[in-house]
């Protein structure tokens, strides 16, 4: 890894696959659950909730497996790019089957193709995040790289959201099938184009911790995977830094996961804006896109963990404002989504950048680069949050008697839906701010970690551990990576 900064155009090329990643992730959270919950699809809301929750938990299982595989099995391209290329046909076929189904469908059909999709999803997300973390050792450049990736994610959301928004602007209620199909085609076209651009124009760093393992046997790989599951629990148990981040991530990711799962029902039935739901969701992501540079600046000023806390507190205050908005008023929800959207982009890129710093600590402690494993833990917690969001809220909709049909719900039922939409995310965001506020690995400690990594890779001996690094060692693990020498 070079100490030189990457040219901006290469950072932009690296970020491109995040566009179809987001274009697939957004419908999976916001559009597909309500789409499969429609009466003509043949599934109840509770069944849809359980299907999407089980699929997400399957994704949790595959994360550490594929994270370990990506760390161990290299090619002449490096560790990450060949796996990203492999994910493309898996995702393209899955998108075809899930976004363009023939109604009615069975629970088994949806579950199978979701399982298959999440294999490709895990490959591309873990390898893309790990690749980004390994492109630089610099504290602030990592934020810039992950911020660029987050901007591409939001751009992908904006673009894929523009499709149903344009359909709504035609002025006719064409239903959700055409909207979902348009998103599917966008994903199928964009995946191969963006993956080719990133893999062709952006290289991978040279790794000094161990040689490439192109010829690892299946038996060795199976043992490695088994060891990985043990390693996950040992890592979480021993390393308070990673526990800190994972708890914060479940909470910070859970808030938008809940609002995303319920947004269509909230906008259509509570706010009575069925012909503007996608357009107003687009507004939310536009402000999220515009907010990313702001949160990058805040992180440079206050540190990443404090910036995340500020964003979470702001989101917890701005979201409940919709309780006081009149129904059927476009501009009121326009303002509400704009205010709440400002906080959207912060948590994802800040947590990814903080995880890159934690992997530095782990490298000095273990002598191994386990970036894929660590990012698999981060994606695991995000998926647990997403699983619980739809797995809990959709059965709750059945409990309160909600029916996704115009005129079928009482005012009391709609108010209960509103309180679920607002209350759970606000509490999650406040808890996330509380958890992350005292995270100890800030700029000074990471600079010390970077100095020691550079000395280690240059073959230099280390004679001094700073007070900042000593505090991280004490906090981060039970045994520590070094003892402070006696005076």
From TrEMBL:
InterPro entries: MFS_2 (IPR039672), MFS_trans_sf (IPR036259). Belongs to the sodium:galactoside symporter (TC 2.A.2) family. It comes from Tepidicaulis marinus. CDD domains: MFS_MelB_like. It comes from the Bacteria. One of its GO terms (biological process) is carbohydrate transport. Keywords: Membrane, Transmembrane, Transmembrane helix. The lineage of its organism: Bacteria, Pseudomonadati, Pseudomonadota, Alphaproteobacteria, Hyphomicrobiales. The keyword Transmembrane applies. The keyword Membrane applies. SUPFAM superfamilies: MFS general substrate transporter. The chain crosses the membrane at residues 12-31, 43-61, 82-99, 111-131, 152-171, 183-203, 245-269, 275-296, 308-325, 331-351, 372-397, 417-437. GO terms for molecular function: symporter activity. This is Major facilitator transporter. GO terms for cellular component: plasma membrane.
């Amino acid at each position: 890894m070079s100490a030189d900064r990457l040219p901006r155009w290469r950072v932009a090329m690296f970020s491109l696959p995040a566009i179809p990643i987001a274009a697939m992730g957004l419908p999976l959270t916001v559009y597909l659950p309500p789409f499969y919950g429609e009466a003509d699809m043949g599934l109840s809301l509770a069944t849809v909730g359980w299907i999407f929750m089980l699929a997400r938990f399957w994704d949790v299982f595959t994360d550490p497996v594929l994270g370990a595989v990506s760390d161990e099995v290299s090619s002449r391209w490096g560790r990450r790019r060949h796996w990203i290329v492999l994910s493309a046909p898996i995702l393209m076929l899955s998108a075809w089957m899930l976004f363009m189904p023939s109604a009615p469908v069975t629970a088994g059909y949806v579950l199978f193709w979701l399982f298959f999709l999440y294999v490709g999803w895990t490959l591309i997300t873990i390898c893309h995040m790990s690749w980004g973390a390994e492109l630089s050792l610099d504290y602030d450049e990592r934020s810039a790289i992950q911020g660029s990736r987050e901007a591409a994610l939001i751009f992908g959301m904006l673009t894929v959201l523009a499709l149903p928004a344009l359909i709504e602007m035609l002025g006719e209620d064409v239903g959700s099938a055409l909207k979902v199909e348009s998103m599917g085609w966008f994903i199928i076209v964009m995946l191969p184009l963006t993956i080719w651009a990133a893999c062709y124009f952006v290289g991978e760093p040279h790794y000094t911790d161990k040689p490439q393992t192109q010829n690892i046997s299946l038996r060795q790989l199976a043992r490695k995977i088994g060891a990985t599951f043990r390693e996950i629990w040992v890592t979480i148990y021993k390393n308070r830094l990673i526990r800190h981040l994972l708890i914060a991530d479940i909470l910070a990711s859970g808030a938008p996961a809940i609002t995303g799962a319920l947004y269509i029902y909230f906008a259509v039935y509570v706010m009575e804006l069925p012909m503007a739901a996608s357009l107003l969701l687009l507004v939310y992501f536009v402000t999220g896109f515009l907010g990313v540079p702001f949160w990058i600046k805040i992180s440079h000023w206050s540190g990443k963990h404090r910036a995340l806390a500020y964003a979470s507190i702001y989101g917890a205050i701005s979201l409940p404002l919709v309780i006081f908005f009149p129904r059927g008023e476009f501009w009121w929800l326009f303002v509400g989504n704009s205010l709440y959207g400002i906080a959207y982009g912060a948590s994802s890129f800040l947590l990814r950048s903080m995880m890159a710093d934690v992997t530095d600590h782990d490298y000095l402690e273990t002598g191994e680069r386990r970036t894929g494993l660590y990012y698999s833990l981060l994606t695991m917690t995000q998926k647990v949050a997403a699983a619980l969001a739809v797995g809990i809220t959709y059965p709750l909709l059945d409990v309160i008697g909600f029916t996704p049909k115009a005129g079928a719900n009482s005012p009391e039922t709609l108010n209960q839906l509103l309180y679920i939409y607002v209350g759970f995310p606000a509490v999650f965001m406040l808890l996330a701010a509380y958890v992350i506020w005292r995270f100890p690995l800030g700029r000074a400690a990471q600079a010390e970690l970077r100095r020691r990594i550079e000395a280690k890779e240059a073959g230099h001996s280390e004679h001094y551990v700073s007070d900042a690094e000593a505090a991280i060692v004490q906090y981060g693990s039970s045994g520590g990576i070094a003892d402070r020498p006696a005076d």
